[in-house]
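Hi Y.,

Following your request, here is the sequence exactly as I used it, all 239 residues.
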Amino acid sequence: MRILGLLPYPLMALANLVLGPPVFILSLLGLRPLAYRLVELWCLLLHLVTGVRFRVEGLEHVPPDGPYVIISNHSSHLDGPTLIRALPHPVFFVIKRELARVPVWGQAVVKLGFIAIDRRDSARAHEQMKVAIAAVRAGRHVVVFPEGTRSPGDYLLPFKKGGFHLALDAQVPILPVALNRSRRLLAKGRSATRPGTVEVLIGKPIPTAGLGKEALDEILARTRSAITELRRRDPDFEG
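Below is the corresponding structure, written out as tokens. Let me know if you'd prefer a different format.
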């Protein structure tokens, strides 16, 4: 069974090599909607070869128009592809600089509009966050995993404040999202994927319009509380 769980990896590496260059070129030509369709195709292929499915609730809470910042928990490499397929609008992730260096695919998604942050260089990270703010104000839907890394267990790590600064600076709502059961299918440190269903639970938007930085801690607490309540739908959650 472990060997079968490892089989998707060479197939997805091949998909990276096949789809990565067209995503880069189409993005370079300004054809981002078409490039994003290829990213969606990559996510679909990942789900097909791993036997992973998803079920989404709360789509009625997604703002029908205008930008917003998605704040979600993070416990598996399956989380990003699942959000791309589950959410109704194109979404672009704030990622670690190291992920942008992944051969072919990393450069392609950055050109597409993912925002790479160099956490080891605070001055550079500050400038990169300005790019993220401008992107959100221009209408982009940006995903932030505030834990900063995948949780090693069925609990929430402390939230970093970058995503909340982003929402407040851009004056856009926060869309809280809980991803349940993804760790059960591919936990941090595990190499083999198990088939199953990821639950994507979307909470009510948390407005930031008219709020300043003095409200940051309150907004963070409200978002964490909303995600915690949604995470409690997962029987494995320890919160």
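Residues 8-28 form the longest helix (21 residues).

Thanks again,
Q.
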